[in-house]
Design goal:
It contains seven helices and six strands; from the N terminus they run αααααββββαβαβ. It has 273 residues and is an alpha/beta fold. It folds into two domains: 1-70, no CATH class; 71-227, no CATH class. Strands 1, 2, 3, 4, 5 and 6 form a six-stranded mixed sheet that branches. Strand 5, helix 7 (207-214) and strand 6 (220-223) form a beta-alpha-beta unit. It is extended and about 95 Å long. The termini are far apart.
């Protein structure tokens, strides 16, 4: 059994409760293999880097991602806490939200869709591609040895989500962007020691998402690009079952009835009745 350095074991110790004892041993091997593997970080390449590509029970490492029960959202929240402690001990926590396409081919990929290819497209040329789409949430922090701000990813959510996890009446289209943004931000809301600021593009300019971020116990300041005609006001209260429309004449706000005389409109020649 391969063992990790003591320093890496100490860093990974907070994630041990998320897995079973046997699965956590496989997770440590896969993590070390992902760090050492060149090219794509797959399970097979990680095992090859660790010298386990000919292991007779290699399928147990694949089951960490296919059969083992663990929460990626909880793991992302714990990883964010470690990143904040290391890189942002003081000040606001700035989180970036963006989407990326995974270049994978296969008939068994269920979450694959047709999207605009941002790499091959331009202002005058539109290119579509078939690929899974992931919503990536990153911590924007200045790394001391790099002297620049890095985007440190701590959570990736597949989109469109399976229909079982979508809210009632929602779909995997742009109309349900409040759902994908909300699922990506909730782990950042658990950072109660500092203010959380999230930055996203215009695809997340949803009033429902902005309202949900504002109503959290630890509110998230979401910075996004709104439309020029955005209706920024409190939504109307929901109507009660059987509630009738209120008559404006019954309001005590200065409404009065004015008689309308019978005359001819100059533009159409029609008469008002």
């Amino acid at each position: 059994m391969r063992t990790l350095p003591t320093e890496m074991v100490r860093v990974l110790a907070p994630f041990a409760p998320l897995f079973s004892e046997r699965a956590f041993r496989h997770v440590q091997v896969l993590l070390a293999g992902a760090i050492l593997a060149p090219g794509r970080r797959t399970v097979s390449s990680a095992l090859h880097a660790m010298g386990l590509d000919q292991h007779e029970r290699f399928h147990r490492y694949h089951r960490v991602l296919s059969h083992a029960v663990w929460s990626s959202r909880e793991a992302g929240r714990m990883l964010l806490e470690l990143l904040v402690e290391a890189f942002v001990p003081q000040g606001p926590v700035v989180v970036g939200i963006d989407e990326t396409l995974e270049r994978r081919q296969g008939k068994k990929i269920a979450a694959k869709g047709i999207y605009r290819d941002p790499v091959r497209s331009s202002h005058g040329h539109f290119v579509k591609t078939s690929a899974p789409r992931w919503v990536c949430v990153t911590l924007l922090a200045e790394v001391p040895w790099a002297s620049r701000v890095w985007a440190l990813a701590f959570l990736c959510v597949a989109w469109p989500l399976p229909s079982a996890t979508l809210p009632s009446g929602a779909s995997g289209t742009r109309s349900s962007r409040s759902g994908r943004g909300g699922r990506s931000c909730w782990c950042a809301a658990g950072i109660r020691s500092a203010r959380v600021v999230a930055a996203a593009d215009g695809g997340y300019a949803s009033l429902k998402l902005l309202d949900r971020c504002r109503r959290l116990s630890n509110p998230i300041a979401l910075v996004t690009r709104l439309r020029l005609d955005a209706a920024l006001y409190e939504p109307a209260p929901p109507r009660r079952p059987g509630q009738r429309w209120e008559d404006p004449a019954s309001r005590a706000s200065g409404w009065r009835t004015s008689p309308l005389s019978r005359k001819t409109l100059p533009s159409t020649g029609r008469r008002l009745r």
